[in-house]
Write a structure and sequence with these properties.
Layout (H helix, E strand, L loop, with lengths): L6 E5 L6 H12 L2 E4 H8 L2 E5 L4 E4 L1 H14 L2 E4 L13 E6 L2 H10 L4 H12 L2 H9 L5 E5 L3 H17 L5
Parallel strand pairs: 1-5, 1-6, 2-5, 6-7
Antiparallel strand pairs: 3-4
């Protein structure tokens, strides 16, 4: 049975605006927003805490098992900074948010990131690690990089993505 509503992955380095974009898009389109970080915490889909990176060690198999039925139904916006472990068949569009390094540095500093966590994330953005990961994991024609430096960028992206959802048709 084909999905009647699309599934979208919103990915990018921490601080690029994934949750802001996903929440706004969910509100505009009535798709379900799934924040993987929150899901991992709420359902204990992890293998413990990483003190160095100050985050949970996600159990990718548990996450995929938890999402399987919802993703088959369709109508989801998945929000996470990684993308290579999700099955390719789940997504109709993969959005990679990208932010200027100066803007990203300021955002992450305001969040309290410091030391290696701050530098690792800024380097990830400099080297476009998430964009490359998305291009290697999904058909390139569904991977869409979007600039996410300002409120204006968010508004433009939201309008474009809302229009995409409204035009989307299930594949036969």
């Amino acid at each position: 049975m084909a999905r009647q509503r699309p599934n979208i992955l919103v990915t990018g380095t921490p601080g690029t605006g994934k949750t802001t974009m996903s929440s706004a898009l969910a509100e505009e389109t009535q798709l379900r927003h799934i924040n993987i970080g929150e899901l991992v915490k709420a359902k204990s889909l992890h293998d413990g805490w990483d003190n160095e990176l100050d985050c949970y060690v996600i159990n990718e198999d548990l996450v995929c098992d938890e999402l399987e039925d919802m993703m088959e139904e369709g109508g989801n916006i998945v929000d996470y900074h990684g993308c290579d472990f999700f099955p390719e068949r789940w997504f109709d569009l993969v959005v990679v948010l990208q932010t200027d390094n100066t803007v990203l540095y300021d955002r992450l500093t305001q969040r309290g990131y410091s030391g290696s966590k701050l530098s690792n994330n800024v380097e990830c953005e400099i080297f476009q690690t998430l964009l490359e990961e998305a291009k290697e994991s999904y058909p390139e024609n569904i991977v869409q990089p979007l600039k996410s430096d300002s409120i204006e960028d968010i508004s433009t992206n939201l309008a474009s993505l809302t229009d995409w959802v409204r035009r989307w048709q299930p594949s036969t």
